[in-house]
Amino acid sequence: MSMQGAAPPTTDGWASVTGAINSMRSFEQPMALAVTSPDFGTLWIDFPRSRFYIDRPLDALPLSPRTVALYSQQIDPDQELFPWVEWSPIDPLLWKISRAAFGGNPAFWLRAGDRYRLTRWPNLTQLTHSGSEIRILAALGSGQALTVAETAALADADQSDVQAVINALALAGGVEASQGSVVPPPIVEDATRRAHQVGRERRGLFGRLRSRLGVAAHG
Length: 219
Hints:
Blueprint: E1 4-10, H1 14-24, E2 31-37, E3 41-46, E4 51-53, E5 68-74, E6 88-89, H2 91-102, E7 115-118, H3 131-140, H4 148-155, H5 159-171, E8 175-178, H6 186-218
Antiparallel strand pairs: 1-5, 2-3, 2-5, 3-4, 4-6, 7-8
């Protein structure tokens, strides 16, 4: 299958790739994307079937690929694309390259101050994930639309970790973004109140311990 050039070679690495993926996900026509770089050869993405192919392990992809070029092509949804290769589910790829592209900073297509609600859980059996990321997903899946800061408070996580998860979910079409009230939802207020109460209790405990240690030291 011949591919038409969608963009000239770029040095933006994964940021340019994620931007193309985010744009092409909204296309009504079934599309494929080929991503080339001298650092990994060719990466194929089949959007209608949410899968990708590359002739090396995913962990072998570089964090900052050189001279990335993008080529897109409308495909026939009834015709199998490269049936002789072993395709992989797309979520692990998006989970990896969104972090490489943005780290804990917002993806460039996201609006500051938006609230997010989980619409699709990623398949965690396919992803390397931490306990903090599980709590972040649970907070976003609470049914309330949350800001990054509110999600961090609810999940007891760093805002940069929350942003990294939201970037990956947004790239995979797993969150719904909306603009809303500046008033935090009740669940966030409750979590913040509990955190403050725990903080006061800890400070009181530490104060008593210091007092006892001080008495012991001077006794």
